[in-house]
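User: Please fill in residues for this 144-position structure.
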């Protein structure tokens, strides 16, 4: 039972706490929202003083699984059953939506809601509704 509890709940709790801590530190130390779409775009598109910080943040995201493997002795369990073309198309839609909505789930959901932003609340409600509609449609169509 302890192994199942650790794998299902405590790792998720620890990951969520670390995301919250990183977002809070980013805001306190840098004065900016830790929105991943903005940071990734800034790491590759902006050529000003924030490019180095943005690249370091992206590098930290990429090193996360390596740290996980170091600490736990195995890669994080990931099970993806969708077709590659569908995931690529979905990724393009998510990127387009993040640009259209002026932010992603991390910017609006983690940081914006913590600041009680009405705009972020509206964005998160739209994210959730779109996700529920997508799951319902995929289930109705027989999945991916």
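Assistant: Residues filled in for all 144 positions:
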């Amino acid at each position: 039972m302890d192994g199942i509890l650790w794998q299902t709940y405590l790792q998720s709790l620890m990951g969520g706490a670390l995301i919250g801590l990183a977002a809070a530190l980013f805001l306190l130390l840098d004065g900016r929202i830790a929105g991943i779409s903005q940071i990734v775009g800034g790491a590759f598109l902006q050529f000003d003083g924030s490019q180095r910080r943005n690249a370091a943040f992206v590098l930290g995201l990429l090193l996360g699984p390596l740290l996980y493997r170091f600490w736990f002795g195995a890669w994080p369990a990931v099970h993806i059953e969708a077709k590659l073309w569908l995931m690529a198309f979905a990724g393009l839609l998510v990127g387009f939506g993040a640009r259209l909505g002026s932010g992603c789930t991390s910017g609006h959901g983690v940081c914006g809601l913590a600041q009680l932003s009405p705009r972020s609340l509206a964005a998160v409600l739209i994210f959730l509704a779109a996700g529920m509609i997508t799951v319902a449609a995929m289930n109705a169509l027989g999945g991916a």
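For context: The helical segments are 2-30, 36-45, 51-72, 84-100, 105-114, 118-140.
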